[in-house]
Amino acid sequence: VQLQASGGGLVQAGGSLRLSCTASGSIFRINDMRWYRQAPGNQRELVAGITRDGRINYPDSVKGRFTISRDSAKSTLTLQMNSLKPEDTAVYFCNANDRVQNYWGQGTQVTVSS
Prior knowledge:
By secondary structure, the chain is mainly beta. It has no helices and eleven strands.
């Protein structure tokens, strides 16, 4: 499985960005998909996750502002980010797993200016 993320950029506080992640390869094997982020000096943290059957979870830090969705037919994972804050600045990574392995896409930079 290969993951290709896109959609990062620079936005002012209060603005919105939409990240996309397209999976290719043995996509029929994919179970859960997630977005993580990592700011300089911080550990990578979960931003949003969606299971194969559509169950969704968010940490409190983004709940109500971020929305994850998954189009299984097109193997695309999306993260709609609204009301962005400077503390959302980080490199965002998409992630997928199957029964055997964990897969990561390359990161995409999100920068929120105050």
